[in-house]
């Protein structure tokens, strides 16, 4: 059996999002706006009557999930595989600082060319495989009656969902980044999961994340 619906939910805003700093797996908390975003989004997601709640163990995802847990009484189940991409020593740099220090790497990141983030971080392909594997495990724990919410991070969610759905990597850039506290709804049907909603939860707004797309 597999879960009837997966809701992959990006965390609320952090101060580093606002400052255009690369976060990766740095454990940055939500700011006051991010907490408000999480509270508002949780109220909408609670209306879907979720049956299970998973989260990355980084505190920005934990706090986001906590708002939904408070409304629904669900226990948060933590999974390190839901973390954001590991950017190693790029964490804390702004896009302009990275471009000044390593212009070639910054240009490759913006163009979507394969490369490792930071000195010893992950590639896009690695984080996609990690996150897709987590979605597969989580989905297989559910039944057709389950709506499972997964509080996580923007870049990891975008590429992980694409791999999970079998979308060719050349088409991944066609799927835009997730704004803070927006989500992707995946509905299970006769042919497997399909995208029910993408970047849902608000009107279009700038995406402040580790997932630059031009």
Automatic annotation (TrEMBL):
Cellular component per GO, a single term: cytoplasm
Chain residues that bind substrate: 10-17, 60
A Gene Ontology molecular function term of the record: phosphatase activity
InterPro entries according to UniProt: His_Pase_superF_clade-1, His_PPase_superfam, PGM_Phosphatase
Top-level lineage group: Bacteria
Protein name (database record): Phosphoglycerate mutase
Source species of the chain: Kribbella rubisoli
Lineage: Bacteria, Bacillati, Actinomycetota, Actinomycetes, Propionibacteriales
């Amino acid at each position: 059996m597999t879960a009837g619906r997966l809701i992959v939910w990006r965390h609320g805003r952090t101060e580093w999002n606002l400052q255009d700093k690369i976060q990766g797996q740095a454990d940055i908390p939500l700011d006051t706006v991010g907490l408000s975003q999480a509270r508002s989004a949780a109220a909408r997601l609670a209306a879907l009557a979720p049956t299970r709640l998973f989260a990355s163990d980084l505190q920005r995802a934990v706090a986001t999930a906590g708002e939904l847990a408070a409304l629904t009484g669900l226990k948060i189940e933590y999974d390190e595989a839901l973390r954001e991409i590991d950017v190693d020593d790029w964490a804390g740099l702004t896009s302009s600082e990275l471009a000044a220090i390593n212009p070639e790497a910054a240009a490759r990141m913006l163009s979507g060319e394969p490369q490792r983030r930071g000195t010893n971080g992950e590639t896009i392909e690695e984080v996609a495989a990690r996150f897709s594997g987590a979605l597969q495990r989580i989905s297989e724990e559910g039944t057709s009656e389950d709506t499972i919410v997964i509080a996580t991070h923007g870049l990891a969610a975008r590429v992980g969902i694409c791999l999970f759905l079998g979308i060719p990597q050349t088409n991944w850039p066609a799927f835009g980044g997730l704004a803070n506290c927006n989500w992707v709804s995946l509905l299970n049907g006769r042919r497997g999961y399909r995208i029910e909603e993408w970047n849902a939860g608000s009107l279009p707004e700038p995406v402040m994340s580790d997932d630059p797309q031009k």
